[in-house]
Structures are given as C-alpha cells and as structure tokens.
Amino acid sequence: MHEEALIHGTCLAIGGDGVLLVGKPGSGKSDLALRLVDQQGLGLTGTARAAQLVADDQVVIRKQEGRLIASAPAALKGKLEIRGLGIAELAVVAEARLRLAVRLTPAAEIERLPDLGAARMEILGMAVPLILLDPQSASAPARLRAALDQFVQP
C-alpha cells in the first residue's frame, strides 16, 4: 500500500524531473507552468530541458520505493487553467519523480544569496529541495531550470 497526499499546486516534468510549484491561490503557478511548457530552456548545463505538464491545481503525491511520485487526479488530468482564456487541454506526462519544490514568492521576500540546499519541503515524511522563486520575473523559467541543474543528481 502506498502513502498518498493531495497537494494544492502544479507539477511539471522538466527534462523528466518532477517539479512541484506551490504558492497562494493566484500566485502564478499555472502561468509559470504555461511559460515553462511553451519555452524550451537549456539551464546551466546547456542541455535542453523541455517541460511537460503533470498536474495543475491539485497534485497527487505518493511514496513509492523510497521516492515521491507526482501525478494528476483523474478529473484534472490534461487540464491547465490559463487566466483569461479558461481551461486548456494539454498533453501530459502521467507521472514524474518529484525532485524539486518551488514556493512562488514575491521578489522582495527572497534572499539575494540564500543558503542553497538548506531549505526543504517535507511531503509524506520525505524531504525535497525547496527554492523560493518570483514567478513574475522574466527569468523565472531559466532560474527554475538552473535550480534543477544545481539540485538534481542523475
């Protein structure tokens, strides 16, 4: 039997790695997801990391064989809210191993030089690296990919 949690957030698979976006309602989770899906990026390594939607609005997280796996609730699978346009149907990845959590935070509340690796988000008793990111920044998709390059080991 697998442990499960339902989290309010958005999840993407970026280069295959699961990234959980969390924040207050209206903080820009779906908007940042749309920008990541729309723009392929290279991160710090120069390796292309395409983004695909896993889940928007609600994310099912389950613990499986010592890993956290993210997926969409059946009713929301393949749906992404685009403010001003409504609900869009998108191709999705059925599940992704959760490798990074991103708390959407206004720039004024983010330390300029934080202690990378110190912050963690605990889900089902397991810790996932956590970064704070201003989703309004034009560089938000690039910063997120850079964080993946720094935190995720193959």
From TrEMBL:
<dbReference type="GO" id="GO:0006109">
    <property type="term" value="P:regulation of carbohydrate metabolic process"/>
</dbReference>
<protein>
    <submittedName>
        <fullName>Aldolase</fullName>
    </submittedName>
</protein>
<dbReference type="GO" id="GO:0000155">
    <property type="term" value="F:phosphorelay sensor kinase activity"/>
</dbReference>
<dbReference type="Pfam" id="PF07475">
    <property type="entry name" value="Hpr_kinase_C"/>
</dbReference>
<dbReference type="InterPro" id="IPR027417">
    <property type="entry name" value="P-loop_NTPase"/>
</dbReference>
<feature type="domain" description="HPr kinase/phosphorylase C-terminal">
    <location>
        <begin position="3"/>
        <end position="133"/>
    </location>
</feature>
<dbReference type="GO" id="GO:0005524">
    <property type="term" value="F:ATP binding"/>
</dbReference>
<dbReference type="InterPro" id="IPR011104">
    <property type="entry name" value="Hpr_kin/Pase_C"/>
</dbReference>
